[in-house]
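Q: Convert this sequence to structure tokens.
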Amino acid sequence: MKNDFVILLLGRIIQIGIVLISLRVSTTVLPESELGSIYYLTTLQGLFSLFLINPVGQYFNRNTNKWFSNGVIVKCFTNQVKYIFLVAIISSITLIVLSRCNVINIGSSIALEISFLIFAMSLNQTILPLLNMLNKRKAFVVFNLFTALFSLLISLILIYFFEATAKFWFIGIITSNLIFSLYGYLYLRRIKCSSNKTTEIKQNIVEVIKFALPISIATFFMWYLSSGYRIEVEKQYGLVFLASLGVGLAVSNQIFNIIESLLTQYFIPTLY
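A:
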């Protein structure tokens, strides 16, 4: 147990270091307006991830050990991926409609990119925490670190060879998340269940909705308090001011996140 905590702590500290380096690099290589676009678009991505994917993801985490013991974890994970893909499609359509109604300030191509971002990051943050839930701490930490590191490296390469825009920064993040989601999935398939029998599990959609709906309502308000206000900031003051605000809050957010995520990653596998 002590070793698990040390592994998670070291991994989280290194990951925060990579994130802070990414913050420094992004403020150096990207124009302020493009940096503001990153904060604006991640706000929209966060809405769908927190409101629609996070609650169902918590249901998935709650049942992970039971599904693993019954030998159906890969099948249930596949169903979760299908749901994430559906949310990504819905998000793209919703964002295009909101854009046409002048509620948000993005084009159709950006809406599509946000949907890819939603799918890639949600997929990554489903499969990697799943490894942690199954007590594969080292694999969880390593894949998380590589995801963060290669997100930075690929984004930098794309910006260097193409253009210093939010679009290419996001393409790097999407690519890295998809790559290490695949590695995580391949690793998951290698994990052997202690029981050789496979029990059919019927997933009750009504049960999932009853579990997820109250969480969705709570996460919507959490999203607005943590980042949703950025939409109004962009409307009133523009992307350049939003960039300054986002950078100013980023460091304090990361310090808080290291404590919250560390405790969550350590205790939740045991509690569930």
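The chain has a mean pLDDT of 88.
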